[in-house]
Specification:
The complex is a heterotrimer of chains A (554), B (99) and C (548).
Chain A lengths: L9 H8 L6 E3 L24 E8 L2 E8 L10 H19 L5 E5 L10 H18 L6 E4 L5 E2 L1 H8 L2 E4 L5 E2 L3 H8 L9 H8 L1 H6 L5 E2 L4 H13 L10 H9 L9 H9 L22 H10 L11 E6 L2 E6 L17 H17 L9 E4 L9 H6 L1 H18 L3 E5 L3 E2 H6 L6 E5 L6 E2 L3 H7 L4 H9 L8 H5 L6 E3 L9 H17 L9 H4 L1 H7 L1 H13 L2
Parallel strand pairs in A: 3-4, 4-5, 5-7, 6-8, 7-9, 11-12, 12-13, 13-15, 14-16, 15-17
Antiparallel strand pairs in A: 1-2, 2-3, 10-11
Helix pairs in contact in A: 2-3, 2-22, 3-4, 3-14, 4-14, 5-16, 9-12, 12-14, 16-17
Chain B lengths: L1 E8 L2 E2 L4 E4 L6 E6 L5 E8 L5 H14 L2 E2 L1 E6 L4 H18 L1
Parallel strand pairs in B: 2-6, 5-7
Antiparallel strand pairs in B: 1-5, 3-4, 4-7
Chain C lengths: L9 H12 L8 E2 L4 H8 L5 E4 L5 E2 L1 H8 L9 E7 L3 H8 L3 E8 L4 H9 L4 E5 L2 H7 L8 E10 L4 E2 L7 H9 L4 E10 L14 E4 L5 E2 L12 H16 L5 E4 L3 H16 L9 E3 L7 H5 L5 E3 L8 H5 L17 H10 L3 E4 L3 E3 L4 E2 L12 H4 L11 H4 L14 E5 L11 E2 L3 H9 L15 E3 L4 E3 L6 H10 L12 H9 L3 E2 L21 H7 L15
Parallel strand pairs in C: 1-10, 2-4, 2-7, 4-5, 5-6, 7-9, 9-10, 12-13, 12-15, 13-14, 15-18, 16-19, 18-20
Antiparallel strand pairs in C: 3-11, 7-8, 16-17, 20-21, 21-22
Helix pairs in contact in C: 3-4, 8-9
Classes of the chains: A alpha/beta (554), B alpha/beta (99), C alpha/beta (548).
């Protein structure tokens, strides 16, 4: 019990894992870079912004360890910490592409997005996820979860993208923290004061039994070092983000109305008979259904009236050379938590399924089909069964599919006529290389509902609204969001429910110009921090860190 | 949150950069950089408002005993004077080890 | 002389009359759960003295809820005697007009509300006691008319099993059963055969099965995960500068993280110092899980307990050499005997407090909170009636008086500032203000300066017993009071004088390295480590779960 990794702080954890005297910190406490967003909100910053980047050797293997400090602001990812991770991973990728093996490790101890910098957090996490997916083609990207905070929120999706996950029995993994589920869906859905329930559901042992983590080991530095070295040398990869058919088959056998016990779920998990899934294109029908901004624009852009799909919450169609895809409400869905258009277990995997099929079909083609993601996602699904099965894995599957499609050369445009919130947005929108939005005040774009964000950050709703009003980092509206520089284009004279030919043409033109803008451009997400607004105001800290990392890397 | 600034006349210039601590609940981090003055500066950001005189007392005692000279930056998330002292003595320890 | 016809059994007659009024709902001592309210309304009379069982852990919660619901037109002006006022309905009884006067020991969770009710005149305080005093008065001037207590099980004859959580049930029942009081017991279960008899049926008048088991809180459990480096530092100083120095053999640890840290340092730091077998083999203490590593490591010969601690049942059953365990395999706790042992048979008490004044008086009463005393003053005082000797006791004997005797070690461990950054060392205790507000005869001081022999802070140890004037005592306190207003009165010169006299010791004087005070020194760093040390026998309550 004496060589604990868990007991150490983030910096000590990184140093402890590396061979003696080989650790070298990049962009450390003396580089004078703190979050520019915390002090204006009266929050004490940390000199490393809660993310430690440490290069060194582990059993003589060149590694870079990214260690997140769970006790600073709950390990939340903001702009500075996020940019540190992204730029470190980028250099790691470059080195590996150049034939120099560097093994990336991420120590997760994080609640996900830092709510005080929510929009930066979401952007950063999607950029981190993009890097991990590309890196996996070269080296295993290993995740460690020693415990205390564990890995939650958007970063749980990131864990699901790792090649291999090693934890202690004090780790927890879940998309939505128990407090948030209780806030959004009530104590009957998830009683956040019931520690046994939490640990039995989200704890590492159950996660190991059902394929969400790979190894649960003793909380011992040497045990971690040996397990990591073995993972690297044996090039282990669980391909956790590509088990779409397995999970779609599993989900079909699950009764969403019944709260599964952990034992029931484990049994279900062990006896899945896997079969292939393919979702047919949406077809016109005579039956109007509940409308939404997402459905409205899917139907306008594809000209499919009353679009009907075999999976009622996921519409897709190939029209005039573009693949359109949207997640829509379904008021009678047997999963109650997706009835308003949230991204649930089935939605994430189904989107992944559609995109994977497209990647496969275009595999040998020189010109890849562009993808238009129509974004109207109020959130991810908040539910007990969802967490037990691992909804973060479903969202990771779609993140992975979109990222792999983009990296393979598919041009991906996200068109935002509706809400773009939280995990839903990460899974369905943020992996595109161009974002286009309507300038409509009904659009909410954020990491968490105001009610939950207020509860988690111990502020009143009023205080939260005051804090977010003029802070693009925490904006809930699209106009403020634009100030970050992440939008390619904000369409000013079309509203969310417009259906005139004029409006449709404006949107189509915007999509077309975004697609032509992508001609011969990088297939990554760099546009978001390389444009004029981002450089001048929206992502100043991001760019500063990227420069500094370039200087310090070698 | 409150920003505090202190200056103490000191006599023992440090030659190393030192960092200790974490901005965790009830804790703080200290960043120390060498300087060429004959005094130490302290820029403190603290999450607990209204403790300027307590800080002043803790720091006066410390610099009386150990007149380290350098520029200190402290990010504090509610550490008690006892914890502040402990972290300051850890700074001393790091300086000793690296000499 | 006395009248020939004087009735010398009037109290007995009165009791019999009351019992006769309730015969329709009593079936050979047993009363149905749904008749509880009617029973209390029949057996209790206005102005009665009623004892309601409720100590730190076990609460006669069914009976207290029932009493709070009786008709105040029938029952009023009760004089309640309660060792602990801990549940909301304990005070509802007063607010509902059922009772008016209260004698008690401890009011932790309700301390705020009780203050307010006193100042608004809803509640009149008889006195605030230590546990032992309150039990003692049950046999002198506070003999009860009715006692309401809790047991785990009863058999068909009415014998009681109180088992692990016997606590104060026997002493309360005895005070009524032999002085014409009515003994009413709530039981969680009625069985054919008890594991053992803790209280004979002869002493019991009424048994009611409660709607749910009595309330029980794991009050003494501290999760090692929350122990700080400063607590470890103070623990190391205490072990070197007090436990080792005075060869302490028997001890009581008050509740808290400071003492939990010491318990977890014994098998590590204590072993490094070679102290195993030399110090603290004997304990009077609740069976807190942080003792497990020291027990497993062979440090402890015997532990007697005031009460049980939730989750420790199986572990204790498997360690009958250490704990007081019945033939049935379950521990028997006893609060009254525990307090007696704590007062008379121990070398040392170690506790924490919320405020210490310039003289060394300490109190847990802070502004607006009348928390009472509990048992700490019994443990934390020098029993002048003590006559037996021990090495530690003798080590405090003044050398200049041929008739002098030894003294109990009474140790307070505090950080100079509390976690809300308020100074613990103060000019005046808040208790002085509370005395005026609550109209108390005495300032509610938990441990008096004259009884306090050592104070440990993160700065050092003050050996108060060595001071020979109040001025010197104050200087010793100031020297370890850090940058609190009191501490600022000290200076380097005074400090060094006190160090030279051995009245104050800094960590370096004790050869304690401040930077060695790391959490890695704890024998267990979290609850799961404790479970492992116990070989799976400790079963922590769910609220402490932090692993899968």
């Amino acid at each position: 019990m004496n060589n604990s990794l868990l007991e150490l702080n983030a910096r000590e954890r990184a140093v402890a894992l590396l061979d003696k005297d080989t650790a070298q910190e990049l962009i450390g406490p003396f580089d004078n870079i703190i979050s520019p967003h915390l002090i204006p909100q009266n929050i004490v910053p940390e000199s490393d912004d809660g993310v430690i980047i440490m290069k060194g050797q582990l059993k003589h293997l060149n590694c870079v360890i990214i260690s997140i400090e769970g006790s600073f602001q709950g390990g939340g990812i903001g702009e500075v910490g996020g940019a540190k991770i992204v730029s470190a991973l980028e250099h790691t990728l470059l080195d590996n592409k150049n034939g120099e093996k560097v093994y990336p490790l991420i120590i997760f101890d994080t609640g996900g997005v830092r709510l005080q910098e929510a929009n930066y957090g979401l952007l950063s996490i999607s950029e981190i996820q993009n890097m991990i997916i590309e890196l996996k083609q070269y080296v295993p990207v290993i995740g460690l979860i020693p415990g205390r905070v564990g890995s939650f929120g958007g970063m749980s999706i990131t864990t699901a993208l790792m090649s291999y996950i090693i934890t202690t029995d004090k780790a927890r993994i879940g998309l939505n923290g128990p407090e948030v589920i209780e806030q959004e869906a009530g104590a009957r859905e998830f009683d956040s004061s019931d520690k046994n329930l939490i640990w039995n559901t989200l704890g590492a042992k159950q996660r190991k039994a059902t394929g969400i983590v790979d190894e649960v080991i003793d909380d011992d530095v040497d045990a971690f070092r040996s397990t990591i070295a073995k993972t690297i040398l044996e090039k282990k990869d669980s391909n956790r983000d590509q088990q779409v058919n397995f999970y779609l088959s599993l989900i079909e056998t699950l009764d969403p109305a019944h709260m599964l016990t952990t034992q029931e779920y484990t049994n279900l998990y062990r006896h899945v008979s896997v079969h292939d899934h393919h979702l047919n294109s949406a077809i016109p029908s005579d039956y109007p259904t509940i409308t939404s901004r997402g459905r409205h624009w899917f139907e306008q852009l594809t000209q499919i009236k009353n679009a009907h799909s075999d999976i009622p919450t996921v519409l897709h169609a190939l029209v005039n050379g573009y693949e359109y895809i949207s997640i829509v409400p379904d008021k009678n869905n047997n999963f109650p938590r997706v009835r308003h258009g949230e991204v649930g277990l089935k939605e994430g995997y189904t989107v992944a399924n559609v995109i994977n099929d497209l990647i496969d079909r275009d595999k040998d083609k020189k010109t890849k089909t562009p993808i238009v993601i129509i974004v109207d996602v109020p959130s991810q699904a908040y539910g007990y069964n969802e967490e037990l099965v691992g909804i973060h894995m479903s969202l990771a599957a779609s993140v992975s599919a979109y990222a792999r499609a983009r990296q393979a050369g598919h041009k991906i445009i996200s068109f935002i006529p509706g809400d773009a919130v939280s995990g839903g947005f990460l899974a369905h929108g943020l992996q595109s290389n161009r974002l286009i939005a309507l300038n409509d005040s009904s659009i909410t774009i954020q990491a968490m509902s105001k009610e939950s964000a207020a509860r988690i950050t111990n502020r009143s709703l009023q205080e939260l609204e005051q804090a977010t009003k003029n802070t693009p980092a925490m904006a809930y509206d699209i106009k403020n969001y634009q100030k970050l520089g992440s939008l390619f284009y904000l369409i000013s004279n079309v509203k969310s429910y417009d259906s005139s030919d004029y409006a449709i043409n404006i949107v189509k033109n915007a999509i077309n110009s975004a697609i032509s803008d992508l001609e011969n451009k990088p297939t990554d997400l760099s546009f978001r921090y390389n444009n004029k607004i981002a450089k001048e105001s929206g992502r100043v800290a991001t760019n500063k860190i990227r420069l500094l990392m370039d200087k310090q890397w070698n | 949150m409150e920003k505090l600034y202190f200056k103490f006349t000191t006599t023992q210039p440090v030659t190393k950069f030192v960092h200790v601590g974490v901005v965790a609940s009830g804790d703080l981090e200290i960043i120390l950089r060498p300087n060429n003055h004959s005094y130490s500066t302290l820029n403190i950001i603290t999450g607990s408002d209204g403790f300027k005189s307590t800080w002043s007392n803790v720091l006066s005692r410390f610099f009386d005993r150990y007149p380290l000279q350098g520029d200190f930056e402290i990010n504090d998330f509610g550490a008690t004077p006892g914890v502040v002292n402990l972290r300051l003595s850890q700074v001393m320890e790091v300086l000793k080890n690296e000499q | 002389m006395t009248n020939k016809n004087h009735n010398w059994a009037s109290q007995r007659d009165e009791k019999n009359l009351r019992m006769a009024n309730a015969t329709s709902i009593i079936n050979n001592k047993f009363v149905r759960t749904e008749n509880a309210k009617e029973l209390l309304e029949t057996l209790i009379q206005p102005n009665d003295r009623v004892v309601l069982e409720g100590d730190n852990q076990k609460q006669a919660s069914f009976l207290s809820e029932t009493l709070a619901s009786v008709d105040c037109a029938r029952i009023h002006d009760l004089h309640m005697i309660m060792s602990s006022v801990s549940r909301p309905e304990h005070l509802d009884i007063f607010e509902n007009g059922i009772a008016t006067k209260l004698d008690f020991s401890f009011a932790g969770p309700q301390s705020n509300r009780i203050s307010k009710m006193i100042s608004s005149g809803i509640l009149k305080i008889g006195d605030i006691h230590t546990y032992l005093e309150l039990y003692a008065r049950l046999f002198v001037d506070l003999t009860p008319n009715v006692v309401l207590v809790a047991a785990d099980k009863a058999d068909k004859q009415g014998n009681l099993y109180t088992g692990y959580n016997t606590e104060e049930t026997p002493v309360i029942i005895e005070s009524a059963a032999f002085k014409n009081g009515i003994v009413i017991v709530q039981v969680s279960e009625i069985v054919d055969k008890l594991p053992r008899v803790d209280i004979p049926s002869d002493w019991v008048d009424i048994i009611i099965q409660s709607d749910k088991p009595y309330q029980l809180e794991p009050l003494f459990t501290r999760d090692p995960q929350n122990i700080t480096e400063l607590q470890i530092l103070m623990g190391m100083m205490a072990i070197r500068g007090i436990y080792e120095k005075h060869h302490v053999q028997s001890v009581n640890h008050g509740i808290g993280f400071n003492t939990a840290a010491i318990e977890l340092l014994l098998p590590t730091y204590g072993n490094q110092l070679g102290l195993k077998g030399k110090i603290v083999p004997y304990w009077e203490v609740n069976p807190t899980p942080t003792l497990i590593p020291a027990i497993e490591n062979g440090w402890i010969k015997s532990i007697h307990s005031f009460g049980g601690e939730v989750g420790m049942e199986q572990y204790i059953s498997a360690r009958p050499d250490v704990f007081f365990v019945g033939k049935d395999g379950t521990m028997r706790s006893n609060r009254a005997y525990g307090q007696m042992a704590g007062q008379y048979a121990l070398d040392m008490f170690v506790g924490s407090t919320l405020q210490i004044d310039k003289y060394g008086n300490s109190s847990t009463v802070t502004n607006g909170r009348l928390s009472g005393f509990g048992g700490a003053p019994n443990m934390g005082s020098n029993p002048t009636g003590r006559r037996h000797s021990s090495t530690a006791w003798q080590s405090l004997k003044p050398t200049d008086n041929p008739l002098a005797k030894g003294q109990k070690l009474v140790v307070q461990i505090v950080e100079t500032y509390n976690s809300a950054k308020k100074p613990v060392f103060v000019e005046h205790l808040d208790a002085e203000k509370v005395q005026k507000e609550a109209n108390l005869e005495n300032v509610p001081i938990m441990i008096y300066s004259e009884d306090t022999t050592h104070i440990v802070t993160e700065e050092g140890i003050a050996y108060l017993y060595k001071t020979n004037s109040m001025t010197e005592r104050q200087e010793a306190i100031e020297a370890i009071a850090g940058v609190t207003p009191l501490g600022l009165r000290s200076n380097a010169k005074k400090l060094n004088q006190l160090r030279n006299k051995g009245i104050v010791a800094l960590p370096e004087d004790l050869k304690v390295n401040r930077l060695a005070a790391k959490r890695s020194l704890l024998a267990a760093k979290n609850m799961e480590d404790l479970v492992k040390w116990s070989k799976g026998l400790y079963n922590p309550p769910a609220k402490f779960r932090s692993w899968s």
